[in-house]
Amino acid sequence: MVAYPENHGFTYMFDCGVASLLTISDILKLRAVFVTHTHIDHFINFDSIIRHRAGSRNPLTITGPVGIAKNVYSKLLGFTWNLIGKSANCFEIREIIDDETFHIYKIYPPLWKLKNPIVVKSKTLLEQDNIFVNYKVLDHKIPSIAYKLCENDKINISGFPYKGGPWIAKLKEMYLDKVSGQLEVDNKMVSTDELYSYLVTSSGFQVGWAMDHLGTEPNHKLLSELFNEIDILYIEAFFREIDKDYAFKHHHSTSKRSGYLARIAKVKKLKLVHHSRRYLSEIFDVIEEGRAEFEGREPNFSKETIAKYISKE
pLDDT-based confidence at 160, cuts 50/70/90? Predict the structure, then answer.
């Protein structure tokens, strides 16, 4: 999935299992790629990103679980790089160690050597312009990262009696820094306390992304903390609840459990994605199972699904 922040010329990508569907323009606009884990269906098309970014001059940040640095390094070593110089693109890799620690590597062509990383202690994985990203490490038998991408709170102006100008940016900066003083407005000095009365703060948009994980209480606790009251959540619905034993065996969740998680986290909008191919003929019912749980109602299954449930009871 690609996230397009409002009023920005750049984008962010979550996982790259289908990155081959992106246009060259899409890939060139990427600022960061957030990888949940490197199972083949989540990482196979990273080559498409390498193809169009390795020779550019714009740096790209790649984040992921323990091992992501070697995964990226190994991908790069699979190709010959004699046609690009040292001034070409740098890849910055942020390898998540735990919920409060990550390592930063910067690798350059043509050898892409992994050197000693910078160790960072922070719950915030990335801050760029007015965007920041938080994360949690989930259990999928291997580490799988859940991400929350957030816009900073927005400051708007209401009922303003003055003409606009460059001083408005300074006013917002002073407001965020909680600084009082005066600003020159319309050729006169005006108290910031007066100007602050015209400012209205609204929450920035928040997007959550949680793919493969074991659908049990420890993961749900982490996810409900991370995704509390976010605007939209994209989450796996790989299995149906009737197949929960098989789901747990493979450290996955079910559509119903993802709907439950979204409900207890008070998510505003739910998108159930990433379904097993075994359900190709019943995708509607897979999604309906999770949506019904999210909305606190009985599911409206097709007749074929109802018959399947009865046969397994």
Answer: confident
